[in-house]
Amino acid sequence: MAEQKTKIEETAEISVEDKLNALFQLQTADTSIDKIRILRGELPLEVQDLEDEIEGLETRVQNYDDEVKKLELEIGNKNQDILTAENLIKKYQEQQDNVRNNREYDSLSKEIEFQTLEIELSKKKISEFAIQNKSKGEQINDAKNGLEERKGDLEAKKSELDEIVADTQKEEDNLDKKSLEIQAMIDPRLLTAYKRIRGSARNGLAVVPVERDACGGCFNKIPPQRQLDIKSRKKIIVCEYCGRILVDDEILGEEK
Rounded CA gap, 131 and 129, in Å? Predict the structure, then answer.
């Protein structure tokens, strides 16, 4: 408890200048972390996109395979219809040899004619199914070729991502550790404000120097008197335009 009280007292005794230095150091560390994550930030998205595309191509190939199987089944059914019709024609022709009158003969002739038309229709359907089957086969080949290409791309992207992660992970871990150490030195309310500003800023900059008489975040001009107040480091001043915490440009040299 005494140790905790000492830390609180130490935090309370930190000057505004030290607070500003700590905030700027924290911003520097967090910006470095952002750059590392941006470096590999696009790759995970590309890997995810490729994985989604591969999944879509695999589904497409499966659908084509199902359609081919359905067409082959339809062709088999039509061949069976032809065989049935041929047997019926043979049966009707045999019956014609034993008819008792022209009426029965004509009736059997019509049945033979009907079955003949059924055979022609089935053959036409088989021809159509065969053309569709061939087209589906070409589509399957194209989809499979595209699938293999995308799998190759995915493997290359994953390898690239793994390499970048391996190269930057140690640096990122060290920066994360440094960031946490600095955060422990900053007043909780000030740290909360820093995180809020950083979260709302598009580039993640919550603490920016005044450079060329302008805010380093939104680039709006800072009045001379306000610049003097910033340089004095007697109080924490925020940009009236973007709300970022402002520090003087000399802090850049001190940080280096």
Answer: 5
